[in-house]
Design brief:
0% strand, mainly alpha
Length: 65
Amino acid sequence: MIEFGTLLAAALAMVLVLEGLFLAIAPGAPRRLLERLAEVPPEAMRWGGLLSAVVGLFVLWLLVR
């Protein structure tokens, strides 16, 4: 079984890889995305962040159990 610290480091490394590829392939896309996010109400962003965290924790739980 993979240790939690190793799994966390691998997940963070994967985030960096995906973000780097995203910026390399479409450098203007993050700017457009941030401009659109500025129009989203804070309450919707809060619920979206909470949902994302819950889904992420559930997936992590499935992988570690």
